[in-house]
Amino acid sequence: MIKAAVSVLLVLAALSSAFGKYMPKTGKRIPQTLSRGWGDQLVWAQTYEEGLYWSRSRNKPLLVIFHLEDCPHSQALKKVFSEDNQIQKTLDDDFIVLNLVYETTDKHLSPDGQYVPRIIFVDPSMTVRADVTGRYANRMYAYEPSDIKLLISNMQKAKKLLKSEL
Q1: What is the DSSP letter of 38?
Q2: 105: CB partners within 8 A, 6+ apart
Q3: 157: pLDDT strictly greater than 70
Q4: Partners of 118 in the beta sheet?
Q5: In sequence order, what are the residues at sequence separation of 6 or more whose Cβ sits closer than 8 angstroms to the Cβ of residue 108?
Q6: How sure is the predictor about 163, in pLDDT bands with cuts at 50, 70 and 90?
Q7: In the chain, which ranges are E strands?
C-alpha cells in the first residue's frame, strides 16, 4: 500500500514538473529583436537618441517607423516592407533605421498628428524631412502596402537631398 502511494506521488510530481512551464501553442518562441519583424537582418537603433547619434556619426539619414503591434494597417505594411528586397538592401546600405511602438517627446516627428503607421526621414543634421511625404493629404507620412514604390522613391529622394545639402 505504501509502495503504491509513493508511486502515485512520484508520477504526480513528474507530471506537474513537465506541465509547470508555459509553452505557447506554436512551440518555442523566437527571441524578440529590435526589428519587430520589419527586417531582421538590419541593424536597428534602440532609441531615437541612438538613431540620431548613428545618423550624424555615419552621415546617413535616419528612417523612423511609428507603428503598433496590434494595428492591422501596421501589420500589412510590415509584411510588404520586410519582404521587399530593394527596400531591405537600400536600408542596409544607406540608412539608419528605427522603429517605435511609442511616441517620442520630439514634436517634429509628428508634424501632422500622431497616427500609425507613419514613416519619417531625418537627415544627419537632425532635421526632420517634412518635405518627404506619402500620398495622403490628411496623413502625410502614412504608407499603405500599395505605396511601396512611392516609399522607395522617397527613400531615394531622402538620399539625394542629403548629398546635395551637405
Answers
A1: S
A2: none
A3: yes
A4: 66
A5: 128
A6: low
A7: 62-66, 96-100, 118-122
Distance separating alpha carbons of residues 34 and 55, to the nearest angstrom: 17
The grid coordinates listed for 32 are: 524578440
Q: In 10 A of CB 142, how many CB atoms?
A: 20
Model confidence, pTM: 0.77
- CB of 56 closer than 8 Å to CB of 24: no
- Name the strand (E) or helix (H) holding 35: none
CB-based contact 30:80 (threshold 8 Å): no
- Cβ proximity of 38 and 99 under 8 Å: yes
Q: Are 97 and 122 in contact (CB under 8 A)?
A: no
**CA-CA-CA-CA torsion for 40, 42, 43, 49, nearest 10 degrees?**
-100
Answer yes or no: are the C-beta atoms of 78 and 37 closer than 8 Å: yes
Q: Please give the grid coordinates belonging to residue 39.
A: 527586417
**What is the mean predicted confidence (pLDDT) over 31-50?**
88
| Spatial separation of the C-alpha atoms in residues 122 and 54, rounded to whole Å | 12
Mean pLDDT score, 15-28: 46
Residues 6+ apart with CB under 8 A from 72: none
